[in-house]
Amino acid sequence: MQRRAILEELRRVDSHPTADEVYEMVRQRLPHISLGTVYRNLELLSRHGMIQKLEGGGQRRFDGFLENHYHVRCLRCGRVDDVEIEPIAAVDDVLQGLTEYEVVGYKLEFVGLCPQCRQKGQHAHRGLDATEAAEEQKSHELTRDTGTEEER
Ligand SMILES: [Zn+2]
Ligand SMILES: [Zn+2]
Question: Residue 45 carries which DSSP code?
Fold first, then answer.
């Protein structure tokens, strides 16, 4: 019951929500569900191949759509969107004969800046003096080093 509600909510959106966001969605329907239950069921559903788990940029997001499709992830805010292109068939063949693995699939994720962050970046650069710009640069490098901190 809870698991089905989680699955249904996840399949209604294409925003690739985090577990916390799924929790907020499911809570509209099941006010007494706990965050732990949502976490557990998301893990279970992804282990059983009923949903996709997206791990990139230190964030764990979930996708209710299983068909082979590609994602683009914002390096600044972590937002993930679907990319509307046909699966690149040739990629499957690249590894043929080059590994002893039996390759069953691959993951491809584009990275960049989402429209909101692009806009924010432009405003910031116009208004910044040299010191602030240097500060901003430093925080960028920090983020790159840890790879997990969310940039704002
Ligand atoms: Zn962004
Ligand atoms: Zn997706």
Answer: H
